[in-house]
Task: inverse folding
């Protein structure tokens, strides 16, 4: 599809020669060679969609001679007309009175430029009150008029005329275009150009490389001479492209220059011959090429006759449309417009005419007008002049065509040149085109550029990963020919059958390819009618050059010579950069909604979501995604990162597996097994809470180890780290460990890393072996300080049941061990239910246990009776009394109770209990009540048997107490006498008393009294006098 519609005729049969044209609003102003001005109204509302010009009025003889140029000054609502070398202002709509711009006599051309500028007030930047004045937005219109060797500048500010400026020039400007409100480009001749600064009133010559004509061979430089006397004097070609660039024409080449007079782009435009006229409708450059210079193939299929044999060149003028972005022609329109090409030249002279391009507006907006006049005077008199309008197709259609052709770089450049006001969905279109461009770059091996774009666009990571082979992307992988459709592009890509390189560059469409094409065109031998390398098409696919490959295309060829693994490794390294950039950002977005990788086992697996749903995830910033979408992004990223590490950086797999992640296990576990990355796989299982798989793998890996500890320790260590939420898994996986070694298996439940629920563990161990349960309860009580009565009761009951079981099996050794533990436990701990245990004991067995329990219940007599009568263990009975005896309490008579049991038995016994009673009396007489003890003794007991008891009893402590009392009394009286004596000693100080040390009167001074004679000195003299007394005593 061409960017412009076929030219439609606006006005035909115009009997005068149109020399100037201007469109303002819905008015078309046509200036003629006779000085007449025709005003037409343009109606765009016709049913066929074509514009029709209706004559409004004709100003006969507006000027005496030909109207050379027309313009419009909006500030003063006037038409500026250049005729006879003098520009004149004609107010609209009356065109009277005219205002000649007298200072611009001898004018050759002019240009009008309007802009809004911030102008400071004339008083200066600082106002009278000391405050800085603000700049005022002002509409400024500038008209620069090129005269003979000078330039005149007229300026209006908000419609008010300003002072006229003049500047002398080295040559006369014959064409003028504004770059911005300060810089203007002049054309002195078809080969001489300059850039003029309005602020400095200086010019800079435009310098370009020496041209190498490709159209007229050796005679290309004789163009001016060949046209002498033929009425076809060459015109300078100059148009404005944007605020910083202009296009100048030298021979058959176009150069893009800037405000400094230098080329701003290294590539140039090559026409098959020097263009007769050029114009600009952003972003396209129009040129009129003479007959016989453009190959027929350039026109494309739009104007081709399928049945006719194509001539080599067009026999008539051709309007060629080039993109200022790529410098290549997407459309060529031969004259006559809208007719098929015939085998031979036209029978009539209609095709032989003069053509002129006239831009409708200075802002370079569509549409463009073409004026055609037959060269034959008879035909011209009959048919007259025709005015055609070339309208641009919608921007959206042009962009779609570029995308269809795979020219994503050109589509982006075109999009940048379009104003948002005329393309409402400009921003919405940019993202998918940039994404397609990045895919094209990726396919060409420009991985870094592609990944940078993916990062900027916040693309769905599923689509990014899908560009990689299955070893990286898994089930997300798509074939290369499906990449573009995956990113919203066309299902099939058009290919250029005439050139190998065009099919490659169609995916990229970047300017360097076209630059190389132009450079090669300069180096080729001249061709008067163009060559195959200069061919174009009518659609946007014409932007694909068929010349030699540039650096990008060459890189494709070089890639063919490299090892595939080099490109693959480089692409995966670039993917790692993408994934490591996305990973923390996605994790941060999930953290905002309180989702962490530690919860990954609670989330549906990535494999449960279809690839269609994954590719359908939106391309939005992370903050705009739902938690479900963020989770899918995290799973895709971590799975791809895992596979990339597996292929390029296997040493990083361990750290990745050891931290919480969102990796899809089913995608990588087989590859890890194949590469024997068992440790990483176990870490991954652990992170995903797949403990059964991890434990089974540990068991398989170590089952052939000869050492039992080496065989079991890995599984034990793994189980020790599992928390209470995996209790059932611990129970299930520990059974085989118990079957191997119970002592080692018991370590699973005594780990310091985690705390398991104690009751379920005890139940589980009891089912395996009550001794394991008892061991676990002992561990809880002894090492963990468990004080719960539940566990104490359970342990003591286990002891009891194991004792009875061993007793039934007649296993005396086990019984004695367990029974000893039972006795020690009930004798030392206070956290079990005594009554409950006592109720479980049989009255016919375990007497010592019953005795301890009775004692714990305060029933000491019953306890001692069991020791004496049932166990007949008198030493334990005596030890019991020692343990519970407390003077001054209810247990202070426990020895007497035991003595009574000995001497007054309540049951029949054959044992002689007198001797144990006498031994008790002899050893513990101080703890026995003397009177009651004597009363309990049988009559036949001799004094000799209780001698020790009697001595202790009869020994009275009264004497000793009296002596001590008298000594204390005597001591107290002695101290009282000394105190009385000291209190009676005193000294008298009178007014006449003299200090024996300084021999001065003491008076009211502070004194010191010296022992033993009572000398009185001043306080400050005390030390000297005391020293003197000491010396006297020594003598």
Result:
């Amino acid at each position: 599809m061409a960017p412009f519609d076929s030219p439609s005729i606006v006005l035909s049969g115009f009997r005068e020669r149109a020399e100037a044209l201007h469109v303002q609003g819905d008015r078309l102003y046509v200036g003629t060679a006779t000085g007449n001005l025709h005003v037409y109204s343009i109606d765009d509302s016709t049913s066929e969609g074509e514009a029709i010009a209706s004559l409004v009025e004709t100003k006969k003889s507006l000027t005496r001679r030909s109207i050379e140029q027309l313009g419009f000054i909006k500030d003063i609502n006037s038409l500026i007309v250049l005729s006879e070398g003098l520009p004149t202002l004609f107010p609209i709509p009356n065109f009277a009175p005219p205002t000649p711009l007298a200072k611009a006599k001898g004018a050759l051309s002019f240009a009008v430029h309007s802009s809004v500028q911030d102008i400071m007030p004339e008083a200066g930047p600082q106002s009278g009150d000391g405050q800085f004045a603000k700049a005022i937005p002002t509409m400024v219109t500038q008209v620069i008029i090129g005269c003979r060797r000078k330039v005149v500048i007229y300026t209006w500010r908000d419609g008010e005329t300003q002072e006229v400026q003049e500047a002398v020039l080295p040559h006369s400007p014959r064409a003028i275009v504004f770059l911005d409100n300060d810089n203007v480009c002049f054309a002195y001749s078809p080969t001489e150009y300059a850039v003029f600064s309005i602020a400095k009133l200086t010019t800079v010559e435009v310098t370009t490389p020496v041209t190498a004509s490709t159209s007229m061979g050796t005679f290309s430089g004789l163009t001016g001479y060949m046209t002498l006397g033929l009425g076809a004097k060459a015109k300078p070609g100059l148009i404005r492209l944007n605020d910083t660039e202009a296009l100048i024409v030298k021979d058959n080449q176009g150069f893009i220059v800037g405000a400094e007079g230098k080329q701003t782009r290294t590539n140039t435009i090559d026409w098959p011959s020097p263009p007769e006229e050029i114009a600009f409708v952003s972003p396209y450059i129009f040129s009129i090429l003479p007959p016989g210079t453009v190959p027929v193939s350039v026109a494309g299929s739009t104007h081709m006759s399928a049945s006719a044999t194509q001539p080599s060149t067009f026999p008539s003028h051709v309007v060629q449309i080039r993109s200022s972005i790529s410098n290549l022609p997407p459309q060529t329109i031969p004259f006559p417009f809208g007719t098929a090409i015939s085998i031979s030249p036209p029978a009539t002279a209609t095709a032989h005419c003069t053509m002129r391009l006239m831009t409708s507006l200075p802002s370079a907006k569509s549409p463009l007008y073409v004026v055609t006049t037959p060269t034959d005077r008879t035909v011209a008199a009959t048919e007259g002049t025709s005015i055609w309008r070339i309208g641009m197709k919608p921007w959206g259609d042009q962009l779609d065509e570029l995308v269809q052709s795979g020219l994503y770089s050109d589509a982006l450049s075109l999009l940048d040149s379009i104003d948002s006001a005329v393309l409402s969905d400009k921003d919405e279109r940019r993202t998918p085109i940039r994404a397609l461009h990045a895919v094209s770059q990726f396919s060409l091996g420009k991985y870094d550029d592609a990944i940078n774009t993916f990062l900027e666009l916040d693309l769905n990571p599923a689509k990014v990963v899908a560009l990689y082979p299955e070893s990286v992307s898994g089930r997300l992988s798509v074939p290369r020919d499906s990449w573009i459709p995956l990113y919203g592009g066309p299902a099939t890509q058009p290919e250029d059958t005439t050139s190998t390189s065009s099919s490659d560059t169609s995916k990229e469409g970047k300017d360097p390819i076209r630059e190389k094409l132009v450079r090669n065109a300069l180096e080729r031998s001249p061709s008067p009618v163009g060559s195959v390398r200069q061919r174009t098409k009518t659609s946007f696919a014409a932007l694909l050059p068929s010349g030699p490959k540039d650096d990008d295309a060459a890189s494709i060829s070089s890639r063919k010579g490299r090892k595939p693994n080099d490109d693959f490794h480089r692409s995966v390294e670039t993917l790692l950069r993408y994934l490591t950039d996305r990973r923390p950002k996605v994790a941060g977005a999930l953290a905002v909604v309180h989702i962490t990788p530690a919860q990954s086992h609670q989330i549906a697996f990535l494999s449960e979501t279809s690839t269609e749903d994954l590719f359908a995830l939106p391309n939005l910033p992370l903050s705009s995604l739902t938690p479900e979408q963020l989770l899918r992004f995290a799973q895709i990223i971590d799975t791809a990162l895992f596979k990339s590490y597996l292929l390029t950086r296997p040493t990083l797999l361990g750290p990745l597996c050891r931290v919480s992640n969102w990796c899809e296990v089913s995608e990588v576990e087989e590859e890890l097994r194949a590469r024997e990355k068992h440790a990483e796989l176990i870490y991954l299982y652990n992170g995903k809470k797949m403990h059964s798989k991890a434990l089974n793998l540990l068991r398989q890996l170590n089952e052939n180890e000869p050492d039992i500890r080496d065989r079991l320790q890995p599984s034990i260590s793994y189980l020790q780290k599992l928390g209470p939420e995996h209790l059932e898994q611990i129970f299930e996986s520990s059974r085989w460990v118990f079957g191997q070694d119970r002592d080692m298996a018991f370590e699973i439940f005594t780990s310091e890393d985690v705390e398991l629920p104690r009751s379920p563990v005890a139940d589980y161990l009891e089912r395996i072996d009550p001794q394991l349960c008892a061991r676990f309860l002992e561990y809880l009580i002894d090492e963990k300080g468990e004080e719960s009565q539940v566990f104490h009761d359970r342990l003591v009951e286990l002891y009891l049941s194991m004792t009875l079981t061993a007793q039934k099996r007649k296993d005396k050794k086990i019984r004695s061990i367990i029974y000893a533990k039972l006795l020690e436990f009930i004798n030392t701990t206070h956290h079990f239910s005594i009554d409950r245990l006592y109720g479980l004991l049989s009255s016919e067995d375990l007497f010592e246990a019953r005795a301890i329990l009775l004692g714990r219940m305060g029933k000491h007599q019953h306890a001692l009776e069991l020791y004496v009568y049932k166990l007949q263990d008198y030493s334990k009975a005596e030890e019991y009394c020692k343990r519970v005896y407390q003077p001054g309490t209810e247990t202070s008579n426990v020895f007497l109770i035991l003595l009574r049991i000995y001497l007054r038995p309540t049951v029949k016994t054959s044992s002689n209990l007198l001797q144990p009673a006498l031994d008790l009396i002899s050893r513990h007489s101080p703890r026995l009540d003397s009177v009651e003890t004597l009363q309990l003794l049988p009559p036949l007991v001799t004094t000799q048997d209780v001698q020790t008891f009697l001595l202790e009893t009869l020994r009275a402590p009264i004497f000793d107490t009296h002596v001590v009392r008298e000594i204390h009394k005597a001591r107290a009286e002695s101290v009282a006498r000394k105190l009385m004596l000291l209190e009676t000693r005193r000294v008298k100080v009178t007014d006449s008393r003299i200090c024996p040390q300084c021999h001065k009167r003491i008076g009211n001074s502070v004194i010191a009294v010296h022992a033993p004679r009572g000398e009185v000195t001043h306080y400050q003299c005390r030390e000297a006098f005391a020293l003197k007394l000491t010396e006297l005593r020594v003598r």
